[in-house]
């Protein structure tokens, strides 16, 4: 393999800017969408929509089966070998298509059962309309992984923004046509169907790689092995920052959960800020981890960690300043009661924001099973701390437990990098010691 390409260069910063722009569009769209549905259709329909979305997100993880992570990692690894890169991309696309179609059919056929489980026929109807989109979602997720692996991050950002914009427009159309609330579920299918040709035009992927016979079968097996091991990580990442809300619902009143969840909503948004940096950093990490230039790897990790903290600090600072001024727009006591909780959670997340841009480093090193083990450990720590503190201290216990969990996750990442990547002292230190390649 060729030596690692420039790391923290103008392209990296430009790509980061583009993806923060896309993130801003996604965040604004989410806010507009929730307010619009609540105002036009009512709170009940908003609840239905969010349940449909929850089912779609969970089923989407199964539909992609982690193949997107394999496509991203291996496209970065074989950046300089076009024939192999195209072959592995074709194998990933067809594998995702198979899993996506099977998952879409399963969810479509079980939509009525899902509705009965949640005691809502409206949710079941909405899931039925969203189900076809899963077949396209799986392929689109792989195509996005290919874009990410090839560092085509402007196209990646544009595709992300396109998807959420289509969903928003579809919801407006449903309202304009006077259709019932469950019809909003169709917006997910329409978005994925329209996104696929956009991604294909961007990438022009070699769709017919299966003619390579045995070679493509090898890649199908590799993607499947990698994806299955990475799947647990994908599931747990979605739940990691929601553990406290789930556990509070067991121990405290709905009013207390409401106060806490208002602060947690902002924390979830702030968590996504360094995640944007992680997306840009992942393909560069692949190249550096595969090279023998460990000093370059550590320098890149330090700079990326610094960028993650800087953008988090800027966003968190803005939230902390603006938050109290939201009080007149919400029920009395909601903002003032949740503000101290926000400060505790933000303090813990500030520590983790240094490491979030690097917390997929095991995945980029070709260790998806260990990546899933790391995330499992983090989630269990979060659950244990919340279980220990919430029964005695309620929402304050949840805030402290979650803040400590963020700190523990930072320590776990450094220990994992030390043990499995040979970075003595962690991803930012790598104190003196013999260099060795990832095991």
Care to give the gist of this entry?
The protein is mostly helical.
Walk me through what this model shows:
The protein is an all-alpha fold. The protein has 2 domains: 1-239, no CATH class; 241-439, no CATH class. It is 79% helix and 0% strand. It has 16 helices and no strands. It has helices spanning 10-40, 43-64, 67-77, 82-109, 111-117, 121-130, 132-149, 153-176, 186-203, 214-240, 243-251, 254-290, 294-322, 334-353, 361-364, 368-421. The chain starts with 9 loop residues before the first helix and ends in an 18-residue tail after the last helix.
Describe the secondary-structure layout.
Layout: H1 10-40, H2 43-64, H3 67-77, H4 82-109, H5 111-117, H6 121-130, H7 132-149, H8 153-176, H9 186-203, H10 214-240, H11 243-251, H12 254-290, H13 294-322, H14 334-353, H15 361-364, H16 368-421
Helix pairs in contact: 1-2, 1-8, 1-12, 2-4, 2-6, 2-7, 2-10, 3-4, 3-7, 3-10, 3-12, 4-7, 4-10, 5-6, 6-9, 7-9, 8-9, 10-16, 11-16, 12-13, 12-14, 13-14, 14-16
Q: What key attributes describe this structure?
A:
16 helices, mainly alpha, globular, 2 domains, disordered N terminus, 0% strand, 439 residues
* Structural class estimated from helices and strands: mainly alpha
Strand content range: under 5%
Order of helices and strands: HHHHHHHHHHHHHHHH
How many E-type strands? 0
Helix count, per DSSP? 16
Radius of gyration: 22 Å
Task: Name the average pLDDT.
Answer: 90
Task: Report low-confidence residues grouped into runs of 5 or more.
Answer: 1-5
Give the proportion of residues in helices.
over 70%
- Main sheet characteristics: none
The number of distinct structural domains comes to 2
Note the gap between the termini.
Answer: 18 Å
